[in-house]
Amino acid sequence: MGLENETAETLEETYRMARDWNPDLANWAMYTPWPFSPLFQELRDKVETYDFETSNVVTPIIKPEAMDRAELLDRVMHNDRRFYMIKALFHSPWRGSGFRRKYLLGCLKAFLKAGFRRTFYDLGRVGYWRRQTRKTVDSGFDASRRIAPEQAAEWDAAADRTADYLLAHRLPRPAQWLLRALPARLAAPLLLRAIARNAWTFAGSGRVFVTPGPPAVIEIEANPLATAPCHFHLAVFTRLFRTLVHPQAEMRETLCCGSGAAACRFAISWSRR
Ligand SMILES: [Zn+2]
Question: How many A from CA of 184 to the centre of ligand 1?
Fold first, then answer.
């Protein structure tokens, strides 16, 4: 439930379908794409919260165009209540006498207990009680969250290792002295060429193109490590340019495979010296 095109009508249709098929149990899961999966990349501008630590596949993180997330939760809960009310009265208690009946009654009891404790669907935490409270539901997600801090730290560490390796083993000392001595506009094309030669260290299977500019540009076609924005690549290139070309070199990613572009495109700028 809860894709971008979900409406009151489609939610009702889904409920009707569940009644028609009449399964023993129905789980009403929210559409929750995991970060960096292809589906997430496709829908990332519809995702309202990146606080995946609190996300649980039942509290909505996507806002459909036709309603807010609290209303979505309310309507899904409405479906759930109606479905299991009918099950409890007309279905589960009368399904034979063996294992199936015992199992279904066990499920009902568990649902009820979780319902009273408000642990079901994490409803207690988000403050959902009944229809009346749907305007005050607060999913409690951390709105400042963009990427997990651990993930960012890991990317930084990986970027440092890659830059260290390039500086220690792939760029001869005399070449580094020369780059530092040259004006930035002459050093940049030489460094770009060295970066292109060692593309495998940071682009894997992706193809790398460089433009000396200005503006100097590095492109990675089909970047296998795209994370939109590409934290790791920005850190590697920034470090190399600041060390060898200009201490105030700035890097911007203007296009990214992670948000559907054919290539990640990094533009490099520095003030004249
Ligand atoms: Zn990218």
Answer: 25
Compute, in angstroms, the gap from residue 148 CA to the centroid of ligand 1. Answer: 17
Tokens of 183: 């004006």
User: What is the whole-number distance in angstroms between the Cα of residue 93 and the centre of ligand 1?
Assistant: 55
Residue spans per domain, the chain: 8-135, 149-269
245-262 confidence digits (pLDDT tens): 999 999 999 998 877 889
| Average per-residue pLDDT for the chain | 84
Q: Give the pLDDT confidence score for residue 39 in this predicted structure.
A: 74
For 130: left if phi > 0, alpha if psi spans -120 to 50, otherwise beta; the answer is beta
pTM over 0.70: no
* Beta-sheet pairing, 216-221 with 250-255: unpaired
Q: How far is the CA of 225 from the centre of ligand 1 (A)?
A: 8
Q: 266 C-alpha to center of ligand 1: Å? A: 8
- Residue 230 alpha carbon to ligand 1 centre in Å: 4
User: DSSP letter at 87?
Assistant: I
- Which segments in the chain show pLDDT lower than 70? 35-37, 41, 52-54, 116-122, 124, 129-136, 139-151, 272-273
Per residue in 166-205, pLDDT tens? 999 999 999 999 999 999 989 999 999 999 999 888 888 8
- Looking at the DSSP bridge assignments, the partners of residue 268 are 216, 251
Give per-residue burial for 253-263: e unless 16+ CB within 10 Å, then b.
bebbbbeebeb
**Residue range 149-269, CATH number:** 3.30.1380
| Ligand 1 centroid to residue 261 C-alpha, Å | 9
First to last CA, the chain: 57
